[in-house]
Amino acid sequence: MDTSQDVILFFQDIQIRFEKFCDEYNGAGGFEKKTWDSPIGKIDAVISQGAVFEKASAVYCDLDIDTPPVLAQKLGTGIPRMRGLVLEVNIFPNNPHIPKGYIELRANIVGGKTILAGGTDIFPYFHDSDARDMFAAGICDVCKHHHQDYRALRKVRADFFKSKYTKEDVGSHAGIYFFYLEAEHFAFFKDMAEAFFKGYGDLVAQKKNIPVTDQDRQHRLKCHGQWAQWILLEDEGTKFGLDKGIPPEALLGVILPPAAIF
After folding, report:
1. What is the mean pLDDT of residues 47-56?
2. Reported pTM
3. Which of 161, 164, 200, 249 is deepest in the core (most CB within 10 A)?
4. Which domain holds residue 17?
């Protein structure tokens, strides 16, 4: 069964969900919306800046790209091109006692078949086992409900999101990641996204009024530098997009923090 249209509609719904989330937590500051055309497809971005989030962004890419050989082999197809949909949300809070929030949703549509990928996590600026456990509990519940192995998917994230240069973890690894999810598990994919907004929203509400010092703010900028380094040097998806002609502003200008210290 071809579920591609359902996935496309879901991605559109998540963009609306993101705007409602920012309206709820970031005030009525409005949104900056941009669109770019690239050699491999269209990119749409929505950015919110306000009292709670220094920068919250959602970038959606609808791409026509070469079918990766590993995916073609797994699917048993010789179809050379596929449609790749990517929706990524990054939330950088003003208060560093709120973790950075992140979710990535992908769909590879090839030969009438849809393969899902992606994941979510939080990035605490300070050691915060309560925030990590709170976010992990929501994701774990979704995994249990859909008979997915939380520990295995968490390990996929931990193994992949680790800097090969500094050996540091990228994120708390409270969340999960997967590279290949059959479309029959689309309900799990959708519930993971809702768990992100619910869990991250609870953290924002709980921590947004914690007092902040100048030292806290400096530490946040250093953590932003670690994230920026990962994106610029190690993230294969970002490098792929730039190499294929996606404008740097459409990727780096959207997913990087407003300021960082290296």
Report:
1. 95
2. 0.95
3. 200
4. 4-211
